Amino acid sequence: MSEKPKRATIREVAQATGLSPAAVSYALRGIQTSEETQERVRAAAEELGYEAHPIARALASGRTGQVGLLCGSLEDYWQQSLAVGIGRALLARDRYALIVDAGGDPERELALARRLRDQRVDGLIVQPLDPSAALWAELAGTVPVVSIGDALHGGQAQGEVVFDNRRGVTLALEHLRDLGHQRVTVFTPTRASTPDRPADVHVNAEAERLGLRVDVVVVPQSLAEATEVATRVLGGPGRPSAVFCFADSIAYGVYAATRELGLAVPGDVAVCGYDNHPMSALLTPPLTTVDWDIDGIVHSAVRLVVDVIDGKPRKRRVVREPALRVRASTGGAPE
Amino acid sequence: MSEKPKRATIREVAQATGLSPAAVSYALRGIQTSEETQERVRAAAEELGYEAHPIARALASGRTGQVGLLCGSLEDYWQQSLAVGIGRALLARDRYALIVDAGGDPERELALARRLRDQRVDGLIVQPLDPSAALWAELAGTVPVVSIGDALHGGQAQGEVVFDNRRGVTLALEHLRDLGHQRVTVFTPTRASTPDRPADVHVNAEAERLGLRVDVVVVPQSLAEATEVATRVLGGPGRPSAVFCFADSIAYGVYAATRELGLAVPGDVAVCGYDNHPMSALLTPPLTTVDWDIDGIVHSAVRLVVDVIDGKPRKRRVVREPALRVRASTGGAPE
DNA sequence: CCGCATCAGTTAACCGGTTCAGTGAACCGC
DNA sequence: GCGGTTCACTGAACCGGTTAACTGATGCGG
C-alpha cells in the first residue's frame, strides 16, 4: 500500500525519445507529427508503461470524458435498463457515465443536475421530471444537454430523444376500449407538478375522445409502495375493469395486488403497462404493454450527446414511436 | 454555447479577501486558519459563486472522489439493484460511482479493472468473476479494493463483503430435499473457469451429502438466452422435478420456459432462486429464493471502501449470511 | 531563385487547485 | 526578558498534461 506506484509521466517519455513533452503529447494523439515519430513515441510509451493521466488531461484540455446521466427514478426497472444500456454504450465510446438518480423528486433532479455540471461532465443526458425548469436553459449554456422522454421547454437542449407519449397513451387506451372496457384507472408515477406534461394531459383528452371514464392515481415509484396503493384502489369499491400503468414497474405492483386480492388478470381486471421491460413478457400472464425500443433510445441518446461533444453537427431531434405489444394481461390475443 | 461560462477561481477569491490562494484553500477546508478568516472566505466564495474545480483538486490532491464499481454482469437484475444501491450510497457520501459491466466475461472484467485504475478512481468495488486472477494483487497495491461475493484469493483486498454461498446452497438444496425431490437441475451463470469457486464446488459436495442427484447447467446471463436453455432442458427427456437457479434472473427465464412448455410450478417442477430480487415475491407463483439482504451488502461495501480511502481503520471482512425465503414456487408454505 | 505555405517540432504559459517549507507575531512558562 | 511553541498565513513548487505562438527546414509554383 505505502509503496508509491509511481507511473511514468509524459516528460519521461519525452526524455526517452529525445523529444519535447509537447511533441509526445501530439504524437500520442496522432497529430502534428510524422508517422515515424509517432511510432517511436508509441514504442517508448509502451516500454515505460506510460498511459496519459486522465485527470491531468482533463484539467488541461477541459474535457473529462465523462457524461452525466440523470435518471428520473431508478426505482423503475425500465429506467435501470436504460441506464445500464447507456453506460455500456458510452463505455464503448471510451467515456464513463456518471449515473445519478433523482428518485422521482424534481427538486433533487435540479440539485443533481447542478452537481453534475460542477463535476465538469462533458455532457448531460437527462430524463426530465420537470421539463419546464429554468435551470435547463442555464445548464444548456454551459454543457451539452440531451433530453430523453419529454423535450425540455424552449428547445434549449442540444439534442432530444422525444417519446411520442401521446401516441403511446392513444395506443393503450384504444386497445382497452376495443376490448370493451369503459372505466379505466390510470396509475402514473409521481411527477413534477407541471400541468402541461403532454402525456398526462393527453390521458384525459384521449379518454374523452374514446368515451372512457378514467381515474388518474399517482403512485410512488417503489415496488412495495406501488403494490400498496394498487391494493387499496383495486380492493376498494367501484373497482375498474382495466388499469393502465404508466410504467411496467407499476404494473408489477398491480400484479402483486391482484394476487393478494384474489383477482384474476385479465378476467377480473385487465392490465396494460408502459415501457416493455424484458420481464414483462415473462410474467404470468404476459403483460400487454407499450414498447419503446430501448436499444434505439440508448443508441440515439448516446450518439447525440457524443456528437455534440465532439462538435459534429447532427440531427438534433429524434422522435421515437411506440408500438403496442398485445399479450394476455388484457385478454387480447396472447403474443 | 460559445459564450464561455468562466467561473471564479481560487485566486479571485484570494484577491477579493486579500489573502493568498493557499489561505483560501485552507480556509474552505476549515483547517489552519482562524474561524473569522474562514467565515470571511466563505462569504466571498458565496458572493463570487466560487466552487472548487473538482478536476484541479483531483490533480493536485491525488483523489478524484470517484469509486469504480465493477459488476460481474448487469444482465442480472439483482446486480442492477446492487449497482443502483451502491451508486446511491456513494453519492450520499459525496462520491461518484463509475459503474462498468463485465458482462460475465472474466477477461473483460480484468481489462475493465485496469481501465478503472488508469482512470484514477480512489477505490474499487468489485464482484469478482475470477477471484484468483493475479491482477487483483497488483491492483490492490495501487488502489483500495473491496470485494463483494467471493473473496479475492490471497486476501489482498483491503475489504471484503463475503457471501456465505456454501450456506446459501445448503439452504436451497436441503429445502428441496425436504420436499422430497431427488433429482435437481442447477442452473448457474457463466463464470470463470476456476474450479475452486466455493459455491460451485459446494453444490456437488452438498448434493452428495443430501443424497441428491444434481445436474449443473451453465446458462448465459441474458433473460432471452436463459429462457432458451431452460426450455431445452425442461422440455427434454428426464426432466428434473426441481431446479435451483443460482440467480433469480435465471429463475425468471425458467418461469417463462415452464409457461411455454405448459408445465405447472411447483406441480410439475419446483423452482428455487438465489438473491431475492424484489420482483421475485411478486411473481406467480412467488419465488422461493435465498435472500441476501441487499441493503446490508450495499452499506457494508460502501462503508468499507470509503473508510479505507479515508484512512480510517476498520474491520476488513464482513461475512453475510443468507436466509431462505420459502414461497409458493417450491410448494412450500406460501409466505 | 524568390516568396510563401506547410510541416515537424520546441518553448513556455496555462489549467486550478494543494501542500511543503518558511515567516512574523503572539503567547507561554520561568 | 528570553528561548521555544503555536498560530495564521504566504510564496512557490507541483500535480501532469495541453495548446498557442513561434522557429527552422522543406516543398512548391512561377
Automatic annotation (TrEMBL), chains A, B:
PROSITE patterns on file: HTH_LACI_2 (PS50932)
One Pfam family in the UniProt entry: LacI
This protein's record includes keyword Transcription regulation: yes
Domain annotation HTH lacI-type: ranges: 8-61
Protein name as it appears in the record: LacI family DNA-binding transcriptional regulator
Segment forming the signal sequence: none
InterPro entries cross-referenced by the UniProt entry: HTH_LacI, LacI/GalR-like_sensor, Lambda_DNA-bd_dom_sf, Peripla_BP_I
Keywords noted in UniProt: DNA-binding, Transcription, Transcription regulation
SUPFAM superfamilies on file: lambda repressor-like DNA-binding domains, Periplasmic binding protein-like I
Gene Ontology molecular functions: DNA binding
Entry-linked SMART domains: HTH_LACI
